[in-house]
Amino acid sequence: MRELNLSVPSIEEAKLILDEGSKLNPGPWREHSLYVGKAAELIAKEDKELDGNIALVLGMLHDIGRRYGVTSMRHSIDGYNFSMKKGYDLLARICISHSFPYKNIDAVFGKWDCSDEEYKFVKDYLDNIDLSAYDKLIQLCDALALPTGYCLIEKRILDVALRHGVNEYTIEKWKATFEIQKYFEERIGKSIYSVLPNVVENTFNF
């Protein structure tokens, strides 16, 4: 199995990277990424084993592959390659793993708009990692952050399904996401929603 290397940019560099990426490809992914980062930081601060600053950076940049344009699952491999070139191994890993709470390469929303070689690389990569707490944290936060703020996971996953469609793995992926929610609530001893602001307002448009 691949050893986890905690290599990430500083918060200041992460902000610059995200700003640059959003200028290259403007869109709601920037605001979504900021909310994912903040959620990861807030939950990590309640967890004795995780670093809030690392969590913040990973969340902010999990979708950084979108800097290269409007793509589907290609953003995962683009983000991985971008991060590896900068020497940020953990960030590169998150760029791939954030889409896989259910660790099956075909359990994705959208399509694999990449080469056969890139597809095989991602498949082999997933087959050779065990999901860490950081992997699971970003997967969780990705599933509760809209570009407008935090919401119930149920609202976010339905939003994604309506935009990208569903497949034979969708239910298993949803189950895995709720298992991750349970995993963190047991680790921090409280509801994840209790540490996130404005969940009710954003879920129900109050």
Automatic annotation (TrEMBL):
Cross-referenced InterPro entries: HD/PDEase_dom, HD_domain
GO terms for MF: hydrolase activity
Domain HD/PDEase: 25-156
Domain of life: Bacteria
Swiss-Prot/TrEMBL keywords: Hydrolase
Protein name, per record: Phosphohydrolase
Organism expressing this protein natively: Clostridium tagluense
